[in-house]
Specification:
Layout lengths: L2 E5 L20 H33 L5 H10 L2 H19 L2 H25 L11 E9 L2 E8 L2 H31 L1
Antiparallel strand pairs: 1-3, 2-3
Helix pairs in contact: 1-2, 1-3, 1-4, 1-5, 3-4, 4-5
Length: 187
């Protein structure tokens, strides 16, 4: 995903939400192709988040996951859940000392932070103002040069690759869970 900063003064009217002159907007046909992909990505992300809830609840109390689900409900957002997952499992993985488990755990943590960022970018993008080459404005940000929009190219192949990454992560969480239980049982 190629990211471009476009400052307010670079827009014809200074308004990043006005349609730009000479820019071909995304077609209805293109939107019909990407809308189901965005929906699938949102559902796949939910699989990962629900799995994260389960794994937190399971490590808190595997006999009755209710206390763990109470914790995840109170955490609310995905980032906080990732941080709690990292803390709870990180301590246990280190204590178990299994190198294969440590490697799997590290990859999962990295991927959890990655998916959080791109899921938010995709789901909250300004798709109504996307152009015909799938460049989408993500949000208004600021730096020392002023206010700018972050513009990303998100074509169908890009979206499919992110769906695949989410699917792989979900599977890796399940494999990690089995491996964790296995290592724990022989310790």
């Amino acid at each position: 995903m190629e990211s471009v900063k476009k400052y307010l003064h670079q827009y014809d009217s200074g308004d990043p939400f006005e349609h730009e002159k000479g820019v071909t907007h995304i077609s209805e046909e293109q939107l019909n192709e990407i809308f189901p992909l965005i929906g699938r990505l949102a559902v796949q992300f939910n699989y990962v988040e629900a799995s994260l809830d389960y794994h937190i609840a399971d490590i808190v109390n595997p006999r009755s996951r209710q206390p763990g689900y109470t914790i995840t409900a109170e955490l609310g957002n995905f980032t906080k859940k990732v941080l709690v997952f990292r803390s709870l499992y990180g301590t246990a993985v280190e204590a178990l000392g299994d190198e294969e488990l440590k490697k799997a755990y590290s990859k999962i943590i990295g991927d959890l932070f990655k998916v959080k960022d791109f899921r938010n970018d995709i789901v909250h993008a300004n798709w109504m103002d996307a152009n015909s080459i799938y460049q989408v404005k993500l949000r208004l940000l600021t730096d020392d040069k002023g206010v700018y929009t972050k513009v990303e190219t998100m074509n169908p192949d890009f979206l499919r690759s992110k769906i695949d990454l989410l699917s792989d992560l979900w599977g890796n969480l399940e494999i990690f869970s089995f491996k964790f239980a296995e290592v724990l049982s022989v310790s």
